[in-house]
Design brief:
The protein is an all-alpha fold and 128 residues long. The protein is 82% helix and 0% strand. It has helices spanning 2-5, 11-38, 44-68, 75-100, 106-127. Helix 2 packs antiparallel against helix 5 (106-127), helix 3 (44-68) runs antiparallel to helix 4 and helix 4 (75-100) packs antiparallel against helix 5 (106-127).
Length: 128
């Protein structure tokens, strides 16, 4: 519809923008949930793992913000989305490790990975 109103604004660009926004929202939702959850990690190894999870999810969100400011066909945007995707995959192992070390119970692990899966799907859609 926007393409009909403004011929300089193609519909495909709007679709890409909304896809990026969906990916950011899903990643942000997971990031906030993971950030809050890792506050409860108590033991020494849990504290180090919590720091790594926070650092990695924040970096993934930052990469998506960078991607959102790039043009539709910008290779930098694709690299930023790929970086965010890779960061979330890295966090998957950290969550698994937290579960194995007893820092995260099974119920909360499953809740977080469900949120993470939604974010990963959105990022994968941007990369395809």
């Amino acid at each position: 519809m926007d393409a009909l109103i403004d011929p300089k604004r193609p519909a495909a660009a709007e679709t890409e923008t909304s896809r990026r926004l969906r990916a950011f929202r899903a990643t942000d939702h997971f990031t906030v949930a993971a950030w809050q959850e890792v506050r409860s990690f108590a033991r020494t190894e849990g504290e180090a793992l919590a720091r790594e999870i926070r650092r990695t999810v924040a970096r993934a969100g930052g990469a998506l913000v960078a991607a959102s400011s790039a043009g539709e066909d910008d290779d930098g945007a694709r690299r930023a989305v790929a970086s965010a995707h890779g960061g979330l995959l890295e966090v998957r192992y950290y969550l698994y490790l937290a579960r194995r070390l007893g820092c995260l119970d099974l119920k909360r692990y499953r809740q977080l990975t469900t949120l993470q899966d939604a974010a990963l799907r959105e990022l994968a859609a941007l990369l395809s």
